[in-house]
């Protein structure tokens, strides 16, 4: 089986490693089945479509819709690489699943409007599948219910999608929680690579990044501990199962 590739854009080594461990756990893949591409520091590996089973892009401290002049050299390098990869993904129909930062980058690549209108603070939200989402092969493989709890925390979100994109899931405060372009290129606003303990750990690392008030951090965490967000990670296992070859 060709390996999957996980794209990381987190400059912090400890957070990046934790994210990788979560993707390995939730996909069920072994280390040698999941290549690791840290695009904030290295180019994407030179791989042809038949050498890749699929690509997973998780969250990031970066915000794609920010003005270019405010972006760090690491972010500019990472985004240039991601857009180059997405050119290949779309042209060669490579399975792709992007989470949070992944919805901003895939959306931008596909000419969606990404801005801060529908940002959501750190927390748990209700996600509802659309009619198209209920029939989508990846969602059906994951066995997601019509409504479920998703974990979020993002400054930007999809404002408007292009006509060729399909909304698969929505939410009250962020209307596009999941979309698809083509037949197997997906992005989610919620985090399928995080459960409640891991989002709390992640949030501690980014307490000063503006996703929530640091003074309210423990109250936010206490509220999260009462949530059950076990459904979204099933998307990662489904992605690995559906596109393994």
TrEMBL record:
Domain Glutamine amidotransferase: 49-194
GO CC, any one term: cytosol
Entry superkingdom: Bacteria
Protein name: GMP synthase family protein
Organism: Brachybacterium faecium (strain ATCC 43885 / DSM 4810 / JCM 11609 / LMG 19847 / NBRC 14762 / NCIMB 9860 / 6-10)
Lineage: Bacteria, Bacillati, Actinomycetota, Actinomycetes, Micrococcales
PANTHER family found in the cross-reference section: GLUTAMINE AMIDOTRANSFERASE YLR126C-RELATED
């Amino acid at each position: 089986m060709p390996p999957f590739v996980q794209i990381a854009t987190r400059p912090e080594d400890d957070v990046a490693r934790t994210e990788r461990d979560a993707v390995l756990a939730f996909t069920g893949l072994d280390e040698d089945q999941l290549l690791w591409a840290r695009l904030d520091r290295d180019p994407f590996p030179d791989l042809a479509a038949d050498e890749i089973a699929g690509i997973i892009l998780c969250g990031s401290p970066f915000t794609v819709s920010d003005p270019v002049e405010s972006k760090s050299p690491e972010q500019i390098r990472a985004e240039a690489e991601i857009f180059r990869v997405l050119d290949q993904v779309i042209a060669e129909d490579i399975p792709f699943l992007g989470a949070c930062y992944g919805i901003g980058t895939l959306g931008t690549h596909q000419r969606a409007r990404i801005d801060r209108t529908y940002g959501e603070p750190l927390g748990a939200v209700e996600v509802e599948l659309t009619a198209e989402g209920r029939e989508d092969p990846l969602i059906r493989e994951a066995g997601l219910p019509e409504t479920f709890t998703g974990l979020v925390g993002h400054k930007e979100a999809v404002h408007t999608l292009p006509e060729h994109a399909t909304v698969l899931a929505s939410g009250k405060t962020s209307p596009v929680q999941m979309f698809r372009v083509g037949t197997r290129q997906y992005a989610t606003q919620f985090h399928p690579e995080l459960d409640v303990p891991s989002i709390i750990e992640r949030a501690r690392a980014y307490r000063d990044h503006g996703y929530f008030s640091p003074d309210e951090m423990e109250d936010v965490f206490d509220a999260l501990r009462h949530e059950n967000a076990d459904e979204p990670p099933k998307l990662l296992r489904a992605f690995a199962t559906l596109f393994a070859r």
